[in-house]
Amino acid sequence: MEKHQVLDSGWKRQAIWEGCMLASIAHAIFVANNPDFAYEHSWDGNNYSTNDGQGSRGTVTFGQDFFVGGFRNEEFSVETTEAKELLSQAPQRVQKIAEQDTFQYLLDEVDGAALPIVTTVLWGNDNQVFSSHPYDDMIEQGAHLLEIQASEYENGVDYWEEYYELREQQLTLLKNCIT
Asked: Which of the four pLDDT bands, split at 50, 70 and 90, describes residue 78?
């Protein structure tokens, strides 16, 4: 499958990692009083997973100098090609990490076999980022789950404050955890 360069500067490894950390901390503050939503954001080693509870989920695996993300939007999962095919133009080490880590969080049973169901992928470093789909399609097919994480820090703080309806004390805690 053809690769497409993502030109938006927020979609770089370091910015996304920082955004995932911010989202996770805001989520932890919220979940302390609302444990039913614990599934929305989680970390397992270098793997960050997010789930909107509305049919989209994704996992981003962070390496030392690169990242790879796999996403599934249930609206598009019937159109899914083989997950490995979406990364055919990615470097070998990205493909290997995706198969060993990232895709393991996106497994589903298909004809009695556990297979990764992925509708779009994203990979790159702090200089270049690529996707299996053009930007708008990438967003629609599941990467919308990372839009806030890929935004500027202040936009992220403002978003999580509103999304989780954080009180002033909680917002202060969030900001103190980040600085």
From this structure: low
What does the block give as tokens for 100? 């060993």
| Portion of the chain with pLDDT greater than 90, in percent | 81
In this prediction the pTM is 0.93
Cβ-contact 153, 16 below 8 angstroms: no
Q: Are 71 and 145 in contact (CB under 8 A)?
A: yes
Q: Strand 113-116 vs strand 4-5: parallel, antiparallel, or unpaired?
A: unpaired
Could you tell me where the beta strands, DSSP code E, fall in 37-97? 41-44, 47-51, 56-62, 67-73
The identity of residue 122, as a single letter, is L
Rounded CA separation 17/106 (Å): 20
Q: Cβ(19)–Cβ(156) under 8 Å? A: yes
Distance in angstroms (rounded) separating the CA atoms of residues 52 and 40: 6
- Residue type for position 45: G
pLDDT at 77: 67
